[in-house]
Write a sequence for this structure.
């Protein structure tokens, strides 16, 4: 990339374009421009694309899978949620532990005591017609592109109070997943 040099005629043209008097010398303007350019380069250099941080080997499930299978995948892989995909690998939703617990009658704002009481056999009314992932998944899923900055991911995760975002290409096909844990691990390495 070629270094940008500011010439006097550039400054004169910019000042003329303002159509107003500016009480600043060309030399002061050059200094301000160089400092601003340095800050812009630093800001751009600090951008960390999602593709550098995401997990590429993603555990997924289809919408017609049973909830027992979904719970097994979550448990076996020690994850709390996974993308739901169609036959062409398009992301159509997300299924989480909270979704499955909700199916079991435990509210999404459940407490540890609620879960423990359910495990110990306290009857909790089950939702009817909750047999497949499609019955409990969150859809549509909030997704992100691989070129997005991880700061954008952090903002979305915080605002939406979620833990992960599927990473999709231009055709909404799954290419990875980025979670809070991915961001923390990446930052720890820095």
């Amino acid at each position: 990339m070629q270094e940008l040099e500011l010439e006097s005629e550039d400054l004169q043209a910019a000042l003329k374009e303002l159509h107003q008097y500016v009480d600043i010398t060309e030399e002061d303007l050059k200094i301000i421009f160089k400092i601003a350019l340095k800050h812009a380069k630093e800001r751009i250099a600090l951008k960390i694309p999602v593709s550098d941080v995401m997990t590429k080997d993603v555990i997924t499930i289809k919408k017609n899978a049973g909830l027992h299978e979904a719970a097994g995948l979550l448990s076996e892989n020690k994850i709390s949620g996974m993308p739901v995909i169609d036959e062409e690998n398009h992301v159509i939703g997300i299924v989480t532990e909270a979704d499955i617990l909700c199916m079991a009658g435990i509210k999404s704002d459940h407490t540890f005591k609620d879960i423990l009481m359910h495990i110990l056999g306290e009857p909790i009314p089950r939702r009817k017609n909750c047999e497949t992932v499609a019955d409990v998944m969150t859809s549509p899923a909030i997704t992100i592109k691989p070129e997005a900055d991880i700061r954008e991911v952090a903002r979305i995760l915080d605002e939406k109070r979620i833990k992960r975002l599927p990473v999709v290409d231009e055709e909404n096909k799954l290419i990875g997943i980025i979670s809070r844990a991915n961001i923390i691990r990446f930052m720890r390495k820095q």
